[in-house]
Amino acid sequence: MEGLIRAGRRNLRELRHALTHPSHPPTPLLADAPRRWQRLLPYAVVLAVTAALLPVSLTVLTQDYDVPGGVASALAALQVLPLLMMAHRPLQAWWLVFPSGVAGSLFLLRAPVEAGDAIWPWPAPAIVGMLFLLFALALRERRKALIGVWLCTAVAGITLGQFLPEASDGTNVLTIVLSGVVLVIGGALRERGEAQRRLVEQETISEAERARRTLLEERTRIARELHDVVAHHMSMITVQADSAPYRISGLPAEATEEFASIASSARESLTEMRRLLAVLRSEGAQGERAPQPGLGKVQQLVEATVRAGVPAELSMAAELAPGPGRPAVPQAVDLSAYRIVQEALANVVRHAPGAVTRVSVRAEEKDLLVLVVNGPAPEPDSPTSRAARVEAKGAGGHGLVGMRERVRLTGGTLDTGPLPDGGFRVAARLPLTAEAATPPAPDTPAAPAREHTAGTSGTADAPGASGTADARSTPTPRRTGPAPPQHPTVKDSPDP
């Protein structure tokens, strides 16, 4: 019993607190609406309701309840004018309207109302105004406040109805039911709006987390690929340091010990690299055994894209083609250039199937320039487009996110964007010198830019986008595969 009494007291304290402390700041309804007319709509409704109820209340009090004009005007003003606060302070408005209604009903006892002449204890305009106020209150306040308001209205109506039971004639029951229905509907709308806002906030947080996870996964994938590059250099250091005493005669003992120390450090570094790779590798993933591709595979990559239904051509400088005279391109730049071309072509296959595409790779001073430009996609129902969409099924990757990370890793620049004719352009500048290839400090992962869906945006690693044959040396633009349909020639855009 004592526990029930304590629970009852606690609930009464909570109801009293809810009735005396608004749960929201005095901001109007629809204050966050995007359009101005939506923000002004609550004020228009409040003015219309007040302007309509004020003269009606005055007329009803003077004609149906025989209240003198001055007193009727005062009662009508007390019961109607506080409704102007409905849009921004509904609870405070209720604290003015409810006592005014009770006081007005007590005043009407001086001129008893006969059954059938007028309703009791609330005049009809007061009931209508109260229902509007309760609806506005339900849209703003907590559930406990609504329960307290409904209980106060029901108790006051039942109590006043006992003074003239023959005149109430079911009005109390109707008022109690209508007020409860209005509060339930308004509360349901408020809770639904809050649930939608929370859902939007959660989706925003989830989108940011998803973008962060995508970026981190792409960086991990790039780190796994660069492991082979670093491991190759470390292996060369180990071999050269171990073989130096045998290749160079007459080395002093100090130099021999130094070479042995270098070889030992290189082997330890390789061991640590393998441990790092084990950490970066996903659970259950197997290590790649094939060597990492580079510019020597670009020709074969373009040929695979042609087989996927995309008319593509490659323009590669003769000095970059595979062969004994090929200049030394850093392995990280070599791999990044190949991956950028691969992802750009895969995006064309998926998002612009059948579009005429041109790939250009050339060296300019101390930079390697990679340019992939595609024209607008042909009609969706064309045979080329349908074939390309079939080839593109199942392609997955991170598209522009991976390109940006690879370019940032090598200290280069990336320029992507749509073309005026509806195509898309990907231009990367990768430094060929070690001094210029220092990447910036890793930044905080951010949400990736929304990718263009009409051109080379979306995913990489399209089916058939890899191979083993070496690319041919093509100092001049060379078309691979069947001739594309008639289309304006896509020229190289300005360097990024």
Structural summary, described in words:
With 496 residues, this protein is α+β, with helices and mostly antiparallel strands. Among the domains are: 2-169, no CATH class; 295-439 and 448-467, Histidine kinase-like ATPase, C-terminal domain (Heat Shock Protein 90, 2-Layer Sandwich), CATH 3.30.565. It contains 13 helices and six strands. The protein has helices at 2-20, 36-63, 69-80, 90-108, 124-138, 143-161, 165-168, 171-247, 253-280, 298-307, 331-351, 383-392, 400-410; strands at residues 312-316, 357-364, 367-374, 413-418, 424-431, 478-480. Strands 4-5-3-2-1-6 form a six-stranded mixed beta sheet, covered by helices on one side. Helix 8 packs across helix 13 (400-410), helix 11 (331-351) crosses helix 12 and helix 11 (331-351) runs antiparallel to helix 13. The protein is elongated and about 125 Å long. Residues 384-397 and 444-496 have low confidence and may be disordered.
